[in-house]
Design a protein that fits this description.
mainly alpha, 19 helices, 77% helix
Length: 402
C-alpha cells in the first residue's frame, strides 16, 4: 500500500513538473510567434511556481518577452518606458540567479550582442537589444520634437549601459534643456568616468548648471579647476575659470589668468573685456579704455565691448562734471568752459559705440534712453526727438515719468 501511495505521488509530481514545463514551452511558442500577451501570462505563471521559479532560464525568457513587447509598442509613452524598466529588472534577476556569470548559458544570453541590421527573428532579445530599441525610440521621439519622451528613452538606454557616451551625452543635453538639472548632472557624471572620452562639452554644461542654476560658484570653480588640469589648452574652460574668479571676487588671480590667456590669444574680445573690467575696478581707467576699445576693434559686432566702451566714456564725463561742480565759484569760472568741453567730447565719442550696440540689439530700450540723454545733453535736438519716438513706441508716451 505504501508503495502504491508513493507511486501515485511520484506520478502526480512528474505530471505537475511536466505541466509547468509545458507552460514554459507555451510561453516560448508565443514569444516566437508574436502572441506576446499569451506568452507573458504563461511565463508569469511559471515564475511563481516552485517547479520552474528557481530556474534562471524562466526569468530570462520573461525578460525576452518583455523586451519584445517593448519593441513592438508603437505608442511609446511612459507605459512603454515602464515595460522597459520591468524588462531590465527581470534581466538582472535572471543574471543574478545564474551567479552573475557572463560565461554561463544564461549570462551569455542576457548580454548577447546584436549584429547591425539583423532581422527581427534573429535578434537575441537580450539586454543589449533592449538598449538598442530604447535608443531608436529616443531618436524617433527627438525627431518628432517630443523632447520629454526622447529623454525618457535615452535615460532608459543609459540605465543599461553606463559607458555609452552617445547615450549619456544626449540624455544630459536633453535633461539640461528641459530644466531637469539633477538628471543632467547624473548623465554628465557618467561621462566623466569614461576613459579616453573627450569630456569638454560635459564640463561646459556642468559648470553652467553649478554656477547659474544652482548659484554655487565655489563648486563650479572646483570643477573647472579639475577640468583645466585635464584640458589645459581649452580656451572655453580658461574663460569659465576667469569668470568664476571674478564671481568669487578673486581679482588678483583673475588678472593673472587673463594675462596668461591673452598671451596665447591676444585678440580674444571676451578676455579683453574682462581685462578692461578688472583694470577699471582697480582704477586704471586708461588701461580699461584701451582694452575695451581693442575688444571692438577685433570684433566690431561685440555688444558688450561697444557698451562698456561707451559706458566708461560717460562715467569719465560725469566725473569731470562732478569735479567741476565741486569747485569754488572763482575756479568754476576759470575752468568751466574747458572742463565742460572735455565732458561733451566724451559724450560725443560715446555715441558711435552706443549706436553700434543698439544696431546689434535694436530693441534694447536701456540703450535708447542713454542715447536720448546724451543727445539731449549735446543739444542734438533732432536725434533726441527721433530716439524719444522710438522709446515711446515701445514704453509709451509717458516713459519719462516712470
Amino acid at each position: 500500500m505504501k508503495k502504491l501511495v508513493l507511486s501515485i505521488a511520484m506520478v502526480a509530481a512528474a505530471s505537475l513538473a511536466f505541466g509547468q514545463k509545458k507552460v514554459v514551452k507555451e510561453a516560448e511558442k508565443g514569444f516566437k510567434s508574436g502572441d506576446l500577451q499569451t506568452a507573458l501570462t504563461a511565463i508569469e505563471g511559471a515564475t511563481t511556481n516552485p517547479e520552474t521559479s528557481g530556474d534562471p532560464a524562466t526569468f530570462l525568457l520573461k525578460a525576452q518577452i518583455q523586451t519584445k513587447i517593448f519593441g513592438t509598442d508603437t505608442e511609446n509613452t511612459m507605459e512603454t518606458v515602464e515595460v522597459g524598466n520591468q524588462a531590465i529588472s527581470t534581466f538582472n534577476k535572471a543574471f543574478e540567479m545564474a551567479g552573475s556569470n557572463k560565461t554561463s548559458t544564461v549570462g551569455k544570453a542576457v548580454y548577447a550582442e546584436e549584429l547591425p541590421g539583423v532581422p527581427d527573428n534573429l535578434r537575441p532579445y537580450s539586454l543589449l537589444t533592449l538598449k538598442n530599441l530604447a535608443f531608436d525610440k529616443a531618436l524617433e521621439k527627438y525627431n518628432a520634437e517630443d523632447l520629454e519622451m526622447s529623454y525618457e528613452f535615452f535615460n532608459l538606454a543609459g540605465e543599461i549601459d553606463k559607458t555609452d557616451s552617445t547615450i549619456h551625452y544626449n540624455a544630459g543635453f536633453l535633461a539640461n534643456d528641459l530644466g531637469r538639472f539633477e538628471d543632467a548632472k547624473r548623465h554628465f557624471n557618467y561621462l566623466f568616468e569614461i576613459p579616453g572620452y573627450n569630456k569638454t562639452n560635459a564640463y561646459y554644461f556642468m559648470v553652467q548648471i553649478l554656477s547659474t542654476e544652482e548659484k554655487n560658484p565655489e563648486a563650479a570653480f572646483a570643477l573647472v579647476s579639475k577640468a583645466r588640469e585635464e584640458y589645459p589648452n581649452d580656451k572655453v574652460l580658461a574663460e569659465y575659470e576667469i569668470q568664476l574668479l571674478l564671481q568669487l571676487n578673486k581679482m588678483d588671480e583673475a588678472m593673472a589668468q587673463i594675462k596668461d590667456a591673452l598671451a596665447n590669444d591676444p585678440n580674444n574680445s571676451g578676455l579683453l573685456l574682462r581685462s578692461g573690467y578688472l583694470k577699471e575696478q582697480a582704477g586704471d581707467l586708461n588701461g580699461a579704455m584701451a582694452d575695451y576699445k581693442k575688444s571692438v576693434e577685433v570684433d566690431p559686432n561685440f555688444f558688450e565691448g561697444n557698451y562698456y566702451t561707451g559706458a566708461l566714456m560717460l562715467e569719465q564725463s560725469r566725473e569731470i562734471l562732478a569735479e567741476l561742480n565741486a569747485l569754488s565759484d572763482d575756479e568754476w569760472e576759470k575752468k568751466s568752459q574747458e572742463m565742460g568741453k572735455q565732458a561733451d567730447d566724451l559724450y560725443r565719442q560715446a555715441v558711435p559705440f552706443f549706436n553700434k550696440a543698439l544696431e546689434i540689439k535694436p530693441d534694447n530700450t536701456d540703450i535708447m534712453i542713454i542715447l536720448f540723454q546724451v543727445h539731449t545733453r549735446l543739444k542734438n535736438n533732432a536725434e533726441a526727438e527721433a530716439m524719444n519716438k522710438k522709446i515711446s513706441a515701445i514704453l509709451g508716451p509717458n516713459w519719462q515719468d516712470n
